[in-house]
Design brief:
By secondary structure, the chain is mainly alpha-helical. The protein contains 6 helices and 5 strands. It has 2 domains: 79 residues, no CATH class; 52 residues, no CATH class.
């Protein structure tokens, strides 16, 4: 198994740089041809979300669809996919960023009853509270 960094995933998804997109596709296609899985961490998912939102101005429904495709793609091994799916579900329906929901789901999985934050919009979300 090999791991993919954010920039490889973004180039693969957007093809915004033709040469790098071709190289990214070659890495992924070669791994698929060998039956080798490609690891994508929660941090990479969060960074992909930020890049697609800020640099490519993807609307939330499109972003949710992209993340859902990544999580469901058989060749991709997403770090703790259950956490990623729960965070994605909360992101699709909620007001916070995807990364915030990853933080909440990982904290809950670690046995935390709450994430303490100064972010005012987060304190209205389940699993967060103000100090």
């Amino acid at each position: 198994m090999i791991a993919l960094d954010t920039n490889v995933v973004v180039r693969y998804l957007t093809a915004d740089d033709a040469e790098q997109a071709e190289r990214a596709a070659a890495v992924i296609d070669d791994a698929v041809a060998r039956g080798e899985s490609l690891f994508i961490s929660h941090i990479v998912l969060c960074e992909v979300t930020w890049v697609l939102t800020r640099a490519f101005r993807l609307a939330k429904p499109e972003l949710v669809a992209v993340l859902d495709d990544i999580v469901r793609t058989a060749q991709f091994v997403v770090e703790d996919p259950a956490i990623a799916r729960r965070a994605l579900s909360r992101f699709a329906a909620g007001a916070a960023d995807f990364a915030d929901y990853i933080i909440a789901e990982r904290a809950a999985g670690a046995g935390c009853r709450v994430v303490v934050t100064f972010d005012r919009k987060l304190v209205r979300e389940r699993g967060f509270e103000a100090p």
